[in-house]
Here is the input.
Amino acid sequence: MYNKNMDYLAKSVTENGDFRAYVVDATKLAQQLSNIHHTNYIASLILSRAAIATLLTASSVLKGEEQMQSVLNGRGTIGNIVVESDTKGNVRGYVTNPKAQAVEFENKPNVGATVGTNGFLKITKLAPYSKPFTGQVPLITGEIGDDFTYYLAQSEQIPSSLGVSVLVNKDGSVAFAGGFLIQVLPGTTTKSIEEIENKIKTLPPIYTQLAEGFTPKGILQKIFENITTVNIVDNIAVNMAEELPKSYYAKAIESLPEEEIKQMINEDKGAEIITRFTNSKYYFNDQELKQILLDKQSNN
Here is the structure.
């Protein structure tokens, strides 16, 4: 049952066996990201797009307890864009410059130029009990959807079309956010691919359809209307991922050189960590730092 107060991702396979397709309503996730990071208009647009693209990609290529981190660095004014997602719809992310100066084209903010194309999209897949696997491709347009489409074709060898669609208010708040991913299955004819490509071009943006009240399932049905039937195979709730526990950051402090930890104890009398993903604060007093230092010395 669709709950308009929740984000969710619909996964489907077409009845004719030609395509695997995903549509997500990520409006509330995008709103949370914007609120947490106090992003301006262009940063809200870019971070929301990256979160949706990472979520869709993770949903299509990960299994079980695997996780994914995407990093976009095009050397634009936005800086680095970092997003993490898992197979259960949990997402978090940040940009290093949430108040980025937008690069404009014809008096309009330009996402591609603000992200930049003098860099890369790097995706790392993490699985329990195995080494991380990293794939990297150059940024093609900086528009994010195009770059993830290129990654899927080059690194995953999956012909795909990934679209991200975000409507941002002038104050930087997100009105609607969603996206789609269509992947070609083996044996699909060129005619079928061209047919769905042409159909996508005729449809309004995903955010327009969400604003009109369409659900992810309804959008999937519109995409394949008069072509084939879509069979929904799973609905995944989409949520902001929980912050990492304080113990994680204790281990991060432990990895620092001993002199730095001693300086925190003797001069600063403690340490405060502001987390990248949620702007949460963790405070370590001098006694906690002394214990971390003892743990470090005993482990060496």
Q: What stands out?
A: The first strand starts at residue 7 and ends at 14. The chain has a mean pLDDT of 94. The chain has two domains: 7-240, 246-299. The chain is about 35% helix and 30% strand.
